[in-house]
Amino acid sequence: MPFAVRRLVVEDAAQASEIERDAFPEMFPPTSFARELGNRVARYLVAWRREEVESDDAPNPYAEPDPGGDGAGVGVRRFIRNARGLLPWRTTAWEPGQQFLAGFLGIWQVIDEAHIISVGVRSGYRGLGVGELLLISAIEQAREHNADRLTLEVRVSNYVAQNLYTKYGFSKRGLRKAYYADNREDAYIMTTGSIRAHSYAEEFRQLVAEHEQRWGRACRDW
Ligand SMILES: CC(C)(COP(=O)(O)OP(=O)(O)OC[C@H]1O[C@@H](n2cnc3c(N)ncnc32)[C@H](O)[C@@H]1OP(=O)(O)O)[C@@H](O)C(=O)NCCC(=O)NCCS
Q1: CA distances from 97 to 17, 46, 88, 109, 208 (A)
Q2: Which atom of ligand 1 is nearest to the CA of 152?
Q3: Ligand 1 centroid to residue 92 C-alpha, Å
Q4: Rounded CA separation 152/15 (Å)
Q5: Mutation test of ligand 1: which of 49, 134, 163 has the most ligand atoms closer than 8 Å to its C-beta?
Q6: pLDDT tens-digit profile of 36-75?
Q7: 3-state SS of 59-71?
Q8: What average pLDDT does the structure give for the chain?
């Protein structure tokens, strides 16, 4: 897989903010990633695109990777978006020589409950298994830190994210009314059962194997 996962470091803060603006344009105030690095209960993971460091010809990482098999219309739309990424007046957080981040995920763990506070993938990099890779990594990390379950809030309208969470055993356990400040939308509370249970471990192993088979093996290093 052309993506790998590692912990967020302070040099990633500008790109993480850029991804947050892309994934959560309504979010205010924005997350201070530099401050979060000092938060003892917080852990942030990033998915970075490995091709940049492995090739010498300076690519435009803002250009979307080609998932293959697109129709002509999709190809034209991607060409236009990619050309936008090359405009000289466009300011970007990524600088040549840095790893290019495609997405991030944040967890706050309190005792045995790991709370996923945010997961976002750049819009040009969605549908490529990156969000799922970040969630897999979060669950692996939660297990390493002896969490028993994971929980999160998700907009009732965000069926894409709900699909991802449901795939990994989260189910709707409650509703927070008017949880989101921008439009007073409700949030579902979604929670896993015990991730230490044998049955969960077995299902998780199977899902990780399927992800690897579909997208290739991804290095997870933290
Ligand atoms: C939600 C998000 C992180 C998913 O990341 P992604 O990299 O696009 O997702 P993946 O390619 O890894 O897909 C994993 C699963 O997500 C779900 N999913 C992804 N795209 C979907 C789509 N267009 N429609 C329905 N389900 C979708 C599916 O369950 C998919 O598994 P499948 O391919 O076996 O069906 C991404 O869409 C995003 O950043 N959205 C904006 C921010 C956001 O809503 N974050 C969640 C806040 S709670």
Answers
A1: 19, 17, 18, 33, 31
A2: 48
A3: 24
A4: 23
A5: 163
A6: 999 999 999 999 999 765 555 555 777 766 655 444 555 6
A7: CCCCCCCCCCCCC
A8: 89
Query: The pTM is what?
Result: 0.89
Tell me the residue range of the domain where 214 lies. Answer: 3-59+67-221
CA separation, residue 30 to residues 36, 48, 112, 158 (Å): 12, 21, 27, 20
Strands 149-155 and 220-221: unpaired
Q: What's the average pLDDT block by block, 10 residues per block, for the chain (222 residues)?
A: 96 96 94 95 96 58 63 55 53 86 97 97 97 98 97 98 98 98 97 97 98 96 86
Task: For residue 127, give every residue at least 6 positions away whose Cβ sits within 8 Å of its Cβ, in sequence order, or none.
Answer: 67
Hey, which residues are catalytic here?
Answer: 153, 165
Tell me how many domains the chain contains. Answer: 1
Q: Which CATH number is 75's domain given?
A: 3.40.630.30
Q: Token pair for residue 24?
A: 């959560």
CA distance 34 to 44: 11
Of residues 101, 155, 119, the one with CA closest to residue 44: 119
**Cβ of 130 less than 6 Å from ligand 1:** yes
Residue 128 Cα: closest atom of ligand 1 = 11
Ligand 1 centroid, distance to 148 Cα (angstroms): 24
